[in-house]
Amino acid sequence: MSAMTNELATMTNGNKKYLIWNNKGGVGKTFLSYTLSVEYAINHPNEDVVVIDACPQSNISEIILGGNGLGQENLNKFRESNKTIAGYIKDRFGKSPLSKLGSESSYFVKAHTVNEKMPENLYLLPGDVDLDICSRLIAHIGSSPVKGAWKTSRSLMSDLIESFEMDKNLSNRPKTFFIDCNPSFANYTELAVVSANRIIIPCTADAASIRGIKNLIKLIFGVSIEQTEQDDMFLDFNKEATQHSITLPKLHLFIQNRSRTNVRDAAIAFKSHAEEIERISDELVKSHSDLFTDVQISSRVINVKDGNTLAAIINHEGCPVSSIIHKKYMIYGNQTQANAAQITALKNDIVDVVNCL
């Protein structure tokens, strides 16, 4: 290995790779993934920031590529040319299932070249509805009798990331990755887990979201917050990862998304669920500190206000949160007001999270 390759390998080992996931839908995961990645890129111009869309719905890709309508049109172009995450998996399955293609970096797009509202240091690995179909291809590769086939099948996303990190045609400056995932624990979600080194868990103050947190801890780490008779059903991934000496990502933050503006006025049920999320976090830190990043953070639970109307505006406009101003935006022919107080509250919360990354 050359000195330059050694230097690159050392540098890439320190790159942050955030898995943003909860085993529960409807927690604002994609909007949070979008706002964090874009605002992080704006606030860290000396880094390359990469969004990986590992959700078949591909909503984050559509926002980054231009917002409602235009974003879908641009995404369709990448799907037609097979330059998406599903396109890579299909190409890999057809040409070189057990080894890299050598063209991994070509599947990433520099977002600013498609949507000028995006920061110039932001890249995207576009999503694709065919990712669900690709789950069968991943399973097929993993079932090969070749030694280590399961690890190879779950390393497809890692191969993409590592190739991007090592590409000599790109800058050798730090790179930070944000991976937006489907709520299910499909094998393409396992790809995301294997490739990440930090986990951000979006959640809302409700019982279903809390169950999702508990499932995530069990599915990835094999750790039960509550013992159940069906615990063994959750252990397949953790057993395989342990057997193949895969380093699992560390828990970094629980983000209570869509928080109430005034917690004092929140319903009793909301308060109790919010307190339960805090309790789970605190108990895990005490009993399983090895599962967490060693970053010094005052609290592992951070609250982010509900985007409300702002989320609709951002989804439509394909623009950063920090560029939204107090005015009326036209969405599908209707005027929609962006409220100054909401803008300030959301911006401040996102800045607080970005400062912890």
Major sheet details: 8 strands, mixed
How many domains? The number is: 1
CATH superfamily: P-loop containing nucleotide triphosphate hydrolases
Approximately how much helix is present in the residues? 40-55%
Task: Calculate the terminal CA-CA distance, rounded to whole Å.
Answer: 32 Å
Low-confidence stretches: 1-10
Number of helices: 14
For the largest beta sheet, what order do the strands appear in spatially?
3-4-2-5-1-6-7-8
Task: Supply the CATH architecture.
Answer: 3-Layer(aba) Sandwich
Strand content: 5-15%
Rg to the nearest angstrom?
20 Å
User: How are helices and strands ordered from N to C?
Assistant: HEHEHHHEEHHHEHEHHEHEHEEH
Which geometry do the CA atoms define?
A: globular
Which whole number gives the mean pLDDT?
90
CATH T-level topology: Rossmann fold
Q: At the first level of CATH, what is the class?
A: Alpha Beta
Topology, number of strands: 10
- Give me the secondary-structure category: alpha/beta
